[in-house]
Amino acid sequence: MWLDLDQLVQFWEFAARLKAEPRRGWLKKLRLQRTESVADHSFALSLLCLFEGERRSYNVERLLKLALLHDLEEAIFALSTGESASLQRTMVGARERKQQGSTASSRTR
């Protein structure tokens, strides 16, 4: 999975917003007021995979990749359905910066 620099920055901004994105399943099913973020959950799962994967002689690299990426679809779904205003702002901002950059580079040619 190779990304150019603009794509990498956009992905990083999106992933960084997961710190503020609540895990929706817990909010809906248990009607909790506060729950862990998507990033909190992925971090805890990554630690579990690291230690249990080593202990059980599993492929730790693969486990860590799955742990870090497994909830991205939750965030992408929230973005696509309009459930997450914070993620939408991040994506719109990245798109605008990219458009401004391409406009500026076309002027210098």
Characterization of this structure:
The chain has 109 residues and is mostly helical. The chain has one domain (23-104). Helices cover 73% and strands 0% of the residues. It has six helices and no strands. The protein has helices at residues 5-16, 24-30, 38-55, 60-69, 72-81, 85-107. The chain starts with a helix and ends with a helix. The model has no long low-confidence stretch (mean pLDDT 77).
Global shape: flat
> What number of structural domains do the residues give?
1
What's the rounded overall pLDDT mean? 77
Largest sheet: none
User: Which class do the helix and strand fractions yield?
Assistant: mainly alpha
Whole-angstrom Rg: 17 Å
Q: In oligomeric terms, what are we looking at?
A: single chain
SS strand fraction: under 5%
Helix content: over 70%
Task: List low-confidence stretches.
Answer: none
Secondary-structure element series: HHHHHH
SS field, number of helical segments: 6
Number of strands: 0
Question: Which properties best describe this structure?
Answer:
single chain; 109 residues; mainly alpha; 6 helices; flat
